[in-house]
Request: fold
Amino acid sequence: MLSKSDTLRNIISKRGRESLKRRPYLQLIILGIACAVLLAGCTGTQDVQSQGNETSLLLGFSQLGSESGWRLGNTRDIHEAAQRAGVQLMFENAEQKQENQIKAIRSFIAYQVDVIAFAPNVEDGWDNVLTEAKAAGIPVLVTDRQINTADESLYAGFVGSDFEAEGIRAAEFLLEKMNGAGHVNIVEISGTIDSTPMRQRASGFRSVLEGDGRFTIIESISGDFLRSKGKECMRELLARHDTIDVLYSHNDEMTFGAIEAIEEAGLVPGKDIVIITVDGEQEAIGLLIEGKINCVVECTPLIGDVIMELAKKLAAGEPIPWETYSVEVTFSEFDDDLDALPPRGY
Ligand code: AHR
Reply:
């Protein structure tokens, strides 16, 4: 690991230390940039991973936070993939704040990284900072969640999951599970408001069930992808509704909290309330095997290798696909080989 000043030294070296010796005014400019970057870096959590290779690609990555096991797995995978690929990584954790992500991206621009990648917390509000990256000639890769912009030239491509398909798969399990059942009351605990997984997991789910009069989503509330909020939301839902047949939860972390609330209310998760969750963390697969969860829709955080491959292409000026989606599956109580699943890695 390198400190920020070590990194700056590497970058100065990379951009031509010899020419700086001949042009002292440039040293002042670099010093100014360094101060600005160090100040900008006072928010969030930054670390720098070096390959000790001064000519390797320098990738600035802004992670949105550490709200879930999924996110921690994603962060770990990106670090490990950078190591494997010989990519020098500047990593910033925005702690769930969009303003921290914007500051991080500005610091990457000041450092003149080769490529910027980021996992946007929400979809709107990126145009200004991405216009700055474009003006600096730094290609941008959007990862995990999507952004909403009228100007598609502001980024080079997207890599992540198809959240709409995940919502569809959640509803398809429910159709199979409720085959022959009467009326079904569903509650939904959704993810962070205005984020892509929240929006698309909701719409994919509804697109399958709409028009089938047996299914009613009696309430949908946001648990912000957090375990503690998942528990709070489920307590509220149980207090407000006498009959809840199904919980559709947008991520495992909220599901773990909701299961605690269901058990505290004296109900049996997976039996009194059918539970459908998204992500596929190791703990969720364990609860599926125990019968406390009925269906786990996979959303993989293990996209680090693809990010490195695309970043290398961008740094080399090569084209990349506009969208790259992970291949994902569904695990459910209908599977008979769950015990044989390899470790999930998150
Ligand atoms: O964007 C992916 C989602 O974000 C995952 O489902 C969730 O666990 C994470 O917080």
